[in-house]
Design brief:
The protein is α+β, with helices and mostly antiparallel strands and 331 residues long. Helix content is 40%, strand content 19%.
Length: 331
C-alpha cells in the first residue's frame, strides 16, 4: 500500500500577512535601537569633550579684564570719591581714603590710577602684601591707550621693581658698609613699615599732578608705638632732580614743605603726612639747555639721625645719598 502524502501546512493569507508585518516591525524596532545607541554614544562623546574643554578652561588663568568705558554717572561718582579720598588723606585717615577709593574701583573697575591709589593707601596702613598684589594686578592689565593711565602702569612696575630690590638677599658686594645710608634696614621693616632699628619710617610716597606740569610729593610717615615722639626733633629733606638732553642730572628747586595732617604728634600709631611741591623750570631758560623732571629723593631724620629714605628712580640714592646726620629742625 503506497504511503499517504502529508499535505503542506499552508497558512491562510491573513496569517501570512501578520507574520510579514511582525517581521517588518521587528526589523524597524531593531533599527531604532541601533540608532538610539549611536546617538547616545555620540552624545556621551560630546559630553566628554565638553567636560574636557571646561576643565581646560578652568585650569587656564583668566586674563585681566580690560577697562570698559563707564557711564557718565559712575564716572562722576568715582571722581567725587577720589576727591573725598584726598580729603581723608590730608587728615591722616588712610582707612577712610582706602574705603572711598575701593568704592571708586567698584564703580569704574580696572583703572590703573585708581588701583595705584589703592595700593598706596594699603601701604600707608602697613598692608604691604595687599599693596603688592594690587601693583601686580595693575601691570597685568592690558596696555592702556590713555598716556596718563600708561604712566600709572609704569609707576606700578617701578614700585614692584623697588620692592623686589629691597627684598633681594644681600650679595657679597652689598655686605661692606659702603652701601648708601638709607639701605641700612631698607629691606628689613616691621609690620608697620618702619626700618628695623629706626624710630620712624616712610610708609608711603605718592607723586601727584594737581595741574599739568605741576607735581607734588606726598609723604606719609609713621613712628614706633614704643617711642614718644617729640615733633621738634623731626626734620625732612625733599630734593627734586631734572635731566637735560645730554643726560646730565641736576638739582631742581622745591617749594616749602607743609604738613597736611595736624596736629603733628604721631600719637597712637597714626601716620603724619607732609607734601612738597616741585617747581617746574621756566619755559625760557636763555642759553641754558632745556630740562625735564627726572625724580626725587626724600629722607626723614629724628634727633639729627637718618631714619628712612625713598627715591624714584632708585638710582638717585646712589648718585645723591642723603647724609647720615642732619640738624633737627622741625618742618
Amino acid at each position: 500500500m503506497a504511503p499517504t502524502a502529508t499535505p503542506p501546512n499552508l497558512r491562510p493569507p491573513a496569517e501570512r500577512t501578520f507574520v510579514v508585518a511582525a517581521i517588518v516591525l521587528g526589523a524597524f524596532a531593531l533599527v531604532q535601537v541601533i540608532a538610539a545607541v549611536l546617538v547616545l554614544a555620540a552624545k556621551l562623546d560630546l559630553d566628554e569633550i565638553g567636560r574636557r574643554l571646561a576643565a581646560r578652561n578652568a585650569a587656564a588663568p583668566a586674563a585681566p579684564a580690560a577697562p570698559v568705558a563707564p557711564d557718565a554717572a559712575s564716572a562722576q561718582k568715582a571722581n567725587s570719591l577720589m576727591a573725598e579720598a584726598d580729603e581723608f588723606r590730608a587728615k591722616g585717615n588712610f582707612r577712610g581714603a582706602l574705603e572711598a577709593v575701593t568704592e571708586a574701583d567698584r564703580l569704574v573697575p580696572n583703572r590703573p590710577g585708581i588701583l595705584l591709589q589703592m595700593a598706596s593707601d594699603q601701604a600707608s596702613l602697613g598692608a604691604t602684601a595687599e599693596a603688592t598684589a594690587l601693583l601686580k594686578r595693575i601691570v597685568a592689565l592690558p596696555a592702556p591707550a590713555d598716556p596718563a593711565e600708561a604712566g600709572f602702569v609704569a609707576q606700578a612696575r617701578a614700585a614692584l621693581a623697588q620692592i623686589s630690590n629691597a627684598d633681594a638677599p644681600p650679595t657679597t658686594a652689598d655686605a661692606p658698609p659702603t652701601v648708601t645710608p638709607d639701605k641700612a634696614g631698607a629691606g628689613v621693616r616691621d609690620e608697620v613699615g618702619i626700618p628695623i632699628g629706626s624710630v620712624m619710617g616712610i610708609v608711603s610716597v605718592q607723586l601727584v599732578e594737581p595741574k599739568p606740569g605741576q607735581k607734588s610729593l606726598r609723604v606719609a610717615t609713621k613712628a614706633s608705638t614704643e617711642e614718644k615722639i617729640d615733633p621738634m626733633k623731626f626734620s625732612a629733606t625733599v630734593d627734586f632732580y631734572e635731566q637735560d638732553d645730554s643726560g646730565q642730572i641736576q638739582h631742581a628747586d622745591a617749594r616749602q614743605t607743609e604738613w597736611m595732617s595736624r596736629p603733628v604728634n604721631w600719637a597712637k600709631g597714626e601716620p603724619e603726612l607732609f607734601q612738597t611741591a616741585y617747581q617746574p623750570p621756566a619755559a625760557d631758560r636763555g642759553d641754558l639747555p632745556p630740562v625735564q623732571y627726572h625724580g626725587y629723593v626724600v629722607a626723614i631724620y629724628y634727633n639729627g639721625e637718618l631714619q628712612d629714605s625713598r627715591a624714584e628712580p632708585v638710582s638717585l640714592l646712589e648718585q645723591f645719598p642723603p647724609p647720615l646726620t642732619k640738624s633737627a629742625v622741625s618742618e
